[in-house]
Design brief:
The complex is a heterodimer. By secondary structure, chain A is of the alpha/beta class. Chain A contains seven helices and 14 strands. In chain A, helix 3 runs parallel beside helix 4. The radius of gyration of chain A is 19 Å and the shape is globular. Chain B has one domain: Immunoglobulin-like (Sandwich). In chain B, a hairpin with a 2-residue loop joins strand 2 and strand 3. Classes of the chains: A alpha/beta, B mainly beta. At the A-B interface, loops of A face helix 1, helix 2, strand 8 and strand 9 of B.
Chain lengths: 328, 118
């Protein structure tokens, strides 16, 4: 899935907007927004947003740009156990996602899974996913989706994926100078409300980042979007803004979410918000259907609306590049 | 949800399809006073078919999940809570005391409903 026809051929499928100033290039930003979800790559470097086409040429450019840093992949919403018409074979599409990861021109250092690993929190569903993801040979960090904590407040999830986590499953870790924060916003939800982090987790978060220098790049990952994507469908987090207020001092914050089963991106100040494809089934665009449930598309189109996100951090460049690619 | 979406691959066609199919079965109002002591509340498209329902004491309500994703029926004050209901799963609760009972889906908390027991 590429957009070569949208790009200037003289630039070999590559458009850069480097105006050597710190403001975001408005034209580049808008183009990037237009391509979001259709195979574009958006990179922020020193506050300047650049756009690249997906494909071997752009991939080659990115590879040659790497001077250290790290590279990881986000996958989301595997919904193992789902077997309805929107995707009768979620095993096959998760395996296709694994093939996609293994075929990346540059192997990722690790993988983030942003929740809804299972559809019904069954041990056999978690087992299936674990077995399939083994083929990546990568370390994998998980956060739970609401489908992973259905009947036991997340006890089984934490037993499997969160042994060193705090509270209901939150934790943080460092990789190559980037600070990663795994948040849980799918438990103790209040009637009429959205996703929720809760006071204990917010307190922990404030403390977790207090000692960090403002130059440290931050990556936050959680299942439900921390930003208000579409509250009418519950696509947001009630106390997400509170969490983000603790991250204001940092120059580079990237927030990675799942839950909405489609790619969306928003840049607000130093914060880039991004949601990933599902590997199982698509959901409608906000407000495009009566409800947010699984969306049936013609079977030959299914793998075009499922996929993975490849994330690239360039050391000393203050940059996190996000590439969404569909399964085909 | 499943049946309605089956033949409509283009999301742009959804609002039309949905409004047409919805017009047929909705002969009940969103709030209703039950005459019998057993009532069914369908859970469909992330909504409770009857968001306010008035019933006599000792009536039994049965929720039926018609969505492709699970829902959990939970009273707002912790009085009752179902296990996760997969497609076509049911959960029943008998209301033995008069009062107002708010409930919601504990994993999709935007879904709310109310039972008035008289």
């Amino acid at each position: 899935m590429t957009n070569k026809n949208l790009f200037d051929s003289k630039a070999n499928g590559l458009i850069e907007h480097d105006h050597n100033h710190d403001g975001i290039d408005r034209r580049g930003f808008l183009k990037c927004m237009a391509w979001a979800g259709t195979g574009a790559l958006c990179v922020i470097e020193g506050g300047v947003l650049k756009s690249y086409a997906l494909g071997s040429q752009a991939g080659g450019k990115m590879k040659s740009r790497k001077v250290g840093g790290l590279r990881f992949v986000q996958i989301s919403d595997s919904h193992m156990g789902f077997n309805k018409p929107a995707n009768p074979d979620v095993v096959a599409t998760l395996k296709a996602a694994v093939d996609k990861i293994n075929a990346l021109p540059e192997s990722p250092d690790f993988i983030l899974h942003t929740g809804d690993i299972s559809h019904l929190s069954k041990p056999s569903e978690f087992d299936n996913v674990d077995q399939i993801l083994k083929a990546t040979n990568k370390e994998i960090f998980f956060v739970p989706g609401e489908h992973d904590v259905l009947n036991d407040d997340g006890a089984m999830f934490r037993e499997r994926y969160g042994k060193n986590s705090k509270g209901q499953g939150w934790y943080s870790f460092d990789k190559n100078g980037v600070h990663f924060i795994a948040l849980v916003n799918v438990m103790n939800l209040k009637a009429g409300g959205l996703g929720a982090l809760g006071d204990d987790q917010l307190e922990w978060l404030e403390d977790d980042v207090r000692h960090l220098k403002s130059s440290r790049p931050i990556v936050v990952f959680a299942h439900i979007p921390l930003w208000s994507v579409y509250p009418q469908w519950g696509w947001g987090t009630d106390d997400g803004a509170q969490a983000l207020s603790y991250l204001k001092k940092f120059g580079s914050v990237t927030v990675l979410n799942g839950h909405v089963h489609q790619t969306m991106q928003k840049v607000e100040g130093n914060v880039t918000f991004h949601t990933a494809f599902s590997t199982a089934f698509p959901q409608p665009a906000p407000g495009a259907a009566e409800g947010p449930g699984p969306m049936k598309v013609p079977s030959e189109q299914l793998r075009r609306v499922l996929g993975i996100t490849d994330v690239n951090y360039l050391e000393n460049r203050h940059a996190l590049g996000l590439v969404d690619s569909s399964l085909v | 949800m499943r049946r309605r979406l089956l033949n409509s691959g283009l999301s742009i066609a959804l609002p039309l399809v949905l409004s047409m199919t919805l017009a047929l079965p909705v002969t009940r109002a969103k709030s209703e006073e039950a005459k019998s002591s057993a009532m069914e509340v369908r859970v469909d498209n992330f909504t409770f078919a009857l968001d306010t329902l008035t019933i006599p004491v000792n009536s039994t309500i049965t929720w039926v999940n018609k969505d492709d994703v699970p829902h959990v029926i939970a009273s707002s004050d912790g009085l009752f809570k179902s296990k996760a209901l997969d497609t076509d799963d049911r959960y029943s609760y008998t209301f033995s005391k008069a009062g107002s009972y708010s409930y919601y889906c504990s994993i999709h908390p935007k879904m709310v409903g109310k039972i008035l027991v008289r």
